[in-house]
Each structure stands twice: as structure tokens, then as C-alpha cells.
Automatic annotation (TrEMBL):
Stated family: Belongs to the leucine-binding protein family.
Coiled coil, from the record: none
UniProt protein name: ABC-type branched-subunit amino acid transport system substrate-binding protein
Leucine-binding protein domain location: 4-332
Organism: Arenicella xantha
Gene3D superfamilies, sorted: 3.40.50.2300
InterPro entries referenced in this protein's UniProt entry, alphabetically: BCAA_transport (IPR051010), Leu-bd (IPR028081), Peripla_BP_I (IPR028082)
UniProt key word Glycoprotein: no
Keyword 4Fe-4S attributed: no
Keywords, sorted A to Z: Signal
Pfam families the UniProt entry points to: Peripla_BP_6
Length: 377
């Protein structure tokens, strides 16, 4: 029996996460429950590396783990990767990719499944420049801005010939604080466009205040702003808003997974739900090809594991070694039933400069700002 530990995070912004992650993992397991045991452990809000290490070590002791799956910010990988390597336990990390995977965090035991948010941020700045927006304003919620994303937007914009003239943080104290005065100030600065990075409750609040403040500047957002679970709570102001993403949310594969997950839970999947499903499927794929369940065989099999999942062709360590070659321009539209959804408009090749800047960031940047381990608040 292959023992897979899974750390379940706590989130006040996604109250069903503790229930939904196990559902996604079991869906990913499919017919392999006779050879893979899922061992769930509560992880709390574990920005404390010591707490996280204790949780992982406890699981290894109790369950004799072959691998452990953790939703984490990439800056925490370095705190636990040596423990996992010394115990010959593969460390599988699901991350939104809001920070680059620093070179110092990588070793042969680490396998990362990312939502590529850093690349999406770079491409959003670049895309804004391609639209002819030269002077940009960026605005981030406190929980979303303390990562590599602001730098990625600015570097991408500069690569396209634009510049960020103003960058501010909102929602410093609460998810429902009044942003209307700040939004009016942004408009008075007359940027060519505003790039907003909020998620969940803060995205809903920002859009409400933008409507009340009669925001006139064109608005671009990063993908978490318009994720499906909260999209229909954003109101009519979000219609027509464009985002840049590394996968098609209206593809047949993505829609099939969303429908299956909703049938079981009554809810649409958050990115961490999608990644949990993918990562368990990748484990199953690795076991299908591994010579045995030894650590060396598992590491080799995980390195080559590949699935066709909700986001298309997916494998571990795409950020570091084989970054997605395509990106998609999506627009918020209404479907035939009147519900909002993200419609894919066009497909583009990722500029080589994006890959180069990511590689440079891996080598030359350090963790800045605070750590939200899950990028879900």
C-alpha cells in the first residue's frame, strides 16, 4: 500500500476548504483506492515552519508515508524539504505560484504543482502594454500583494513598453473596508488602465466600491479576481473584464471536472481544489510506471508523471523546468442561462522574455513581504 499524507489548510475565506480538499483528492484517486491510502492531517494556518514540520513528521511516524502533499507558498518549501529528503518521503507542493520557486528550495524530493500566478502577473502587465496602455496603476489587496506578483506585473509591463506609475494596497484591516475614496483617487491620476489583484471577499468588495465610485479607467485583473466560485457575486461591473491565464477554464476537461465536483459538493472548485485533484492523479500515474515503491523509483516516476487534467497537460515542476508555452486571453461573459463565466478569446505563445525573467527571479530575488501559506485569503 502506498501511503500519501495530505495536509489540509484552514481558511476563513474559504470555509468549505477542509471538506472540499478530501473530496478532490478522492476524485483524483479514482479506482486506485486499493493501492493508495490517503492520510489527512489538519494543517491550520501554518505560516509557522516549525508547526508545519511537526505535522509532517508526525504523519511520517504514524503512517509510514511514501509522500506528503501540502498546499504552500513556495517560501516555506525550504523549511521542510530537508526533513522530507532525510526521511525519503516525496514532498508534493500545491501553490498558486505567487512567488517563484527559488533555487534554494529545490532538491530531488520536491515536486511542485503550480497555478503559475507569477507568470500570469508578468503576462498581464505585458498584455496591458500590447493593448496600448502605457501608464498603468496597480492595486492589490493586503492578502494578495505581499508576494512576487507586483514585481512580475511591473517587469512584464516594462517588457511590453509600459510602466507602472502608481501601486497601492487596499484592505489593510478587513475584507469589507470602504475603498471608494481610494478608487476615486486612482481615477483622478488618469492611468491608461488599472490592474487589480484581489480574491474572494476582497474582490467582491472592491468591485462594489468601484461601481459606487463610478470608476472610469479600464480594468484588468489577475485570475484570482474572477475565479468561478465567487464570479457571480461580483455584479455587472465585471462583465467584459479581461484576464490572462495559463489554461482554458471553458475547456471540455475543465468544465467536466467542475460539474463532477459540484455534483458532489454543491460548489464550484477553487484553484487549490483543482490542484489537489491533479496532484493525486499525478501520483497514480507515477505509480503506474514506477518499477517499485522504493524512494528512488518514486522520485524518478514523479519526474516523468504527466496527465491530461482540467488544465490540459499537467506535470510537476512546470514552473521550474517546462513552463507552459501558451497563455490565454479570457473575458467575463454571460452564458445562455445568464450566469457569468470566463470565456477564452485567444491563445498566444508565451514570450521567451517571460521565461528568462522567471529564471532570473529564481536566482536573484529573495522572499519579500509576508507569507500567506495558501494564497487563499
Amino acid at each position: 500500500m502506498f501511503n500519501l499524507g495530505i495536509i489540509i489548510p484552514q481558511s476563513s475565506f474559504l470555509p468549505h476548504l477542509s471538506r472540499d480538499l478530501p473530496v478532490a483528492c478522492k476524485m483524483g484517486l479514482g479506482d486506485s483506492s486499493d493501492r493508495v491510502k490517503l492520510c489527512f492531517e489538519s494543517g491550520g494556518y501554518n505560516e509557522d515552519a516549525g508547526f508545519l514540520k511537526d505535522k509532517i513528521q508526525g504523519l511520517i511516524i504514524r503512517e509510514n508515508l511514501n509522500a506528503v502533499l501540502c498546499p504552500l507558498n513556495s517560501s516555506l518549501i525550504e523549511s521542510v524539504n530537508e526533513l522530507c529528503r532525510s526521511e525519503e518521503t516525496a514532498l508534493l507542493v500545491n501553490t498558486m505560484g505567487e512567488d517563484v520557486l527559488f533555487d534554494s528550495a529545490a532538491n530531488e524530493s520536491v515536486f511542485v504543482n503550480s497555478y503559475q500566478l507569477w507568470q500570469n502577473a508578468w503576462l498581464t502587465g505585458y498584455y496591458a502594454a500590447q493593448l496600448g496602455f502605457k501608464d498603468l496603476a496597480t492595486v492589490y489587496a493586503r492578502h494578495d500583494g505581499g508576494y512576487g506578483v507586483p514585481l512580475a506585473v511591473a517587469v512584464g509591463a516594462e517588457a511590453g513598453g509600459a510602466n507602472v506609475k502608481l501601486s497601492q494596497v487596499t484592505h489593510m484591516d478587513s475584507a469589507d473596508e470602504d475603498c471608494s475614496e481610494f478608487i476615486q483617487y486612482l481615477d483622478k491620476m488618469e492611468p491608461d488602465a488599472i490592474i487589480a489583484h484581489h480574491s474572494s471577499k476582497e474582490a467582491i468588495n472592491f468591485l462594489r466600491d468601484a461601481e459606487q465610485a463610478e470608476l472610469e479607467s479600464p480594468l484588468l485583473t489577475l485570475p484570482p479576481f474572477v475565479e468561478e466560485p465567487t464570479l457571480n457575486q461580483l455584479g455587472s461591473r465585471i462583465e467584459g473584464t479581461k484576464t490572462v491565464g495559463s489554461h482554458e477554464t471553458d475547456s471540455e476537461q475543465y468544465q467536466r471536472f467542475s460539474a463532477d465536483f459540484k455534483a458532489q459538493t454543491g460548489r464550484l472548485p477553487h484553484p487549490h481544489i483543482v490542484m489537489a485533484y491533479e496532484s493525486v492523479k499525478l501520483i497514480v500515474d507515477a505509480l503506474d510506471s514506477a518499477a517499485d515503491q522504493s524512494y528512488a523509483s518514486l522520485i524518478n516516476a514523479l519526474e516523468h508523471a504527466k496527465i491530461s487534467g482540467p488544465r490540459g497537460c499537467t506535470r510537476f515542476n512546470q514552473d521550474a523546468k517546462n513552463m507552459p508555452a501558451k497563455y490565454y486571453i479570457r473575458e467575463v461573459c454571460r452564458d445562455e442561462s445568464g450566469l457569468l463565466h470566463n470565456k477564452t478569446l485567444t491563445e498566444h505563445d508565451v514570450p521567451e522574455l517571460c521565461h528568462e525573467h522567471y529564471a532570473l527571479a529564481q536566482k536573484n530575488t529573495q522572499k519579500q513581504g509576508w507569507v500567506n501559506p495558501y494564497q487563499i485569503a
